[in-house]
């Protein structure tokens, strides 16, 4: 059964949702029959990369908030992240456009490393304070998960996978997805947001049961009669 996950590396709830979904899946009896595919979604496509401004200041300016309020919001999210074992550090977060990171993720997915790429990007942005719009940074993240450095560099220095990113975004719009994370299970059930582990568990089980029934091989009741076998024995 396929689970498609739309997310943006700069979305704090996407990383939290990833952890809660993983916890639910780990407890699922048939987890080895679940295929996960990450999809691109950009929360702020017009964001300009600027390592010289804090994410708190950026949000305060963009949203019309006070700096204190932006910090309070991030403190709240940091506490949520800690509950699932994640150490967010918004003081180190780099204001960066995520489009290049999405292209990097698509390349990794093509090599069978999509989930590892998402984990590396999330950790790099929220914990390590890395610039996820920087080629050298992405090359290092890529080699750390098993990608070829030269191949990653070639992708980043071109527009390769740009159409794939745009396709994911267009598909999200077609499905009516307005925010991330968004989990689509068996192309039938959508889970929006970083839901509780129990919500993920129930939806995984329901989706899988239906998927299993839909893909069950038909059984035949056979009435024997005269016939010929593949070796030519007729009788």
UniProtKB/TrEMBL annotation:
It comes from Mucilaginibacter dorajii. InterPro entries: DSBA-like_thioredoxin_dom, Thioredoxin-like_sf. This is DsbA family oxidoreductase. It holds the Pfam family DSBA. Residues 3-204 form the DSBA-like thioredoxin domain. Transmembrane segments: none annotated.
């Amino acid at each position: 059964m396929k689970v498609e996950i739309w997310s943006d590396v700069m979305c704090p709830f996407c990383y939290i949702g990833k952890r809660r979904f993983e916890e639910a899946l780990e407890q699922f009896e048939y987890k080895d029959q679940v295929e996960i595919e990450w999809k691109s979604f950009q929360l702020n496509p017009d964001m300009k990369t600027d390592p010289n401004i804090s994410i708190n200041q950026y949000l305060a300016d963009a949203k019309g908030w006070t700096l204190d309020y932006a910090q309070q919001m991030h403190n709240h999210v940091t506490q949520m992240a800690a509950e699932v074992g994640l150490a967010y550090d918004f003081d180190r977060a780099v204001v960066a456009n995520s489009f290049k990171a999405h292209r990097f993720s698509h390349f990794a997915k093509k090599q069978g490393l999509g989930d590892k790429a998402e984990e590396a990007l999330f950790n790099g942005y929220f914990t390590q304070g890395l610039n996820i719009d920087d080629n050298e940074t992405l090359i290092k993240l890529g080699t750390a998960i098993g990608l070829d450095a030269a191949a990653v560099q070639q992708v980043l220095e071109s527009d390769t996978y740009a159409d794939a990113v745009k396709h994911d975004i267009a598909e999200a719009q077609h499905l009516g997805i307005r925010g991330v994370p968004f989990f689509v299970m068996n192309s039938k059930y959508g889970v929006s947001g970083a839901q509780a582990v129990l919500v993920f568990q129930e939806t995984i089980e329901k989706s899988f049961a239906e998927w299993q029934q839909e893909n069950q091989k038909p059984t035949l009741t056979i009435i024997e009669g005269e016939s010929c076998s593949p070796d030519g024995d007729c009788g």
